[in-house]
Amino acid sequence: MPENTTQLRVQDIMTTSFVRADVKDSISSLLASMKKGGAETAIVFNGKKFAGIVSHSGLLRNVDVQKTKVSTIVQTAPRLALNQSFDDAVKQMRNANAHALAVIEKENVVGVVNVQELLGRMKNSEQLRTIKASEMATMQPLFATEKDELGKVVRQLKQGNIRKVPVLNDRGKVTGVLKMDSIALDVLLPMDRNSDDSYKLDNSSQTISKKNIFAIPVKSVMDENPIMVRGNETGNKVADMLARQTNPLLILSDNGMHGIISVQNVFNAYLNQTQSDTQQGEANSIQTTHLPDVDEIDKAKIDSMITKTFNKMQRIMKGELRMNVVYKQTSKAGMRAKTEVNIKVQGTGRPFSAHAEDWKVLLATKEACSALENEISKRYKQRDTGRKR
């Protein structure tokens, strides 16, 4: 039965069971607690006071996990209140790029909202009922290969603010997924207690020196069970599948193009649909498709640029307009991909369109918006000149 998630409050969806740590704890003890509790995020305290959170991806630092304290890696994070809405919790978690947030009342942590609960509620939400998997996916995502060195891929993922990447074999077939969240557990935690300078890979007798640990091939630590989903699957089903396990979903659309769906993709689709259900005008007049994964700062800048261009066009053209912004990743160089942006504005009369591409999503968007503004200014200037004659 469909669930009206917009009526839910944080107090309806939080749990009082979570992994906790103190800023004085060692990172290795924290890792052990997170693995034992099956948690991707821990809530950190400074004595009795809430200090922040720690996630697996935040543990990938060049530090001695046995000697270094949690205080060096704790992250600040938004705080939720008991009476905040479900949609607020989704937005805060998306913006923080976290999988759990603390619920605070009178400066005390009274519970936690985790990503599984949010996704579990979304599986019955009206917002995702009509959205297809292919519509929320990041199409043509970046890939790693089984033979790539772990250190190289980790550096590229950090630079691109990417947490998970599909892995291909020599024949171009998807054989696994490399997850920043799990590298910490597979590489950092299984340290050989009998040696000060070596690690043992999880579930393996192989000992590797600290010096060479990030030179191992990706295949050694990737998850070998990628989960596939059809491009025409519903958003509700996608949310349900992600709520049941931590791997991203890989899709093969009808035209054979690979895509990847992460928690962030689902959150964005849900919030976009919620916005379109509650707002009219501008929000309903701009449609953005296949925006690659970017950090929240760049996403805010991109949204601002697109909205600013739309508003300029509306002031000039008058009447009701609709803008479609379509992103496509084209040529690739290693882990980098060039982004193509196509913008089309339709209203009364002949439509306007502009195109640009760049290795950086933000620059490609900026160039496309500028080209569109120049095109409309030029056309309306010519029209006004013709009238004066």
Automatic annotation (TrEMBL):
Keyword Ubl conjugation included in the entry's annotation: no
Q: Which InterPro entries match?
A: CBS_dom, CBS_dom_sf, Diverse_CBS-Domain, RHF-like
Q: Which domain of life is it from?
A: Archaea
**Which Gene3D superfamilies is this protein grouped with?**
CBS-domain, Ribosome hibernation promotion factor-like
Which keywords appear in this protein's UniProt record, sorted alphabetically?
A: CBS domain
Keyword check for Zinc: no
Q: Where is the CBS domain?
A: 136-193
- The entry's protein name is CBS domain-containing protein
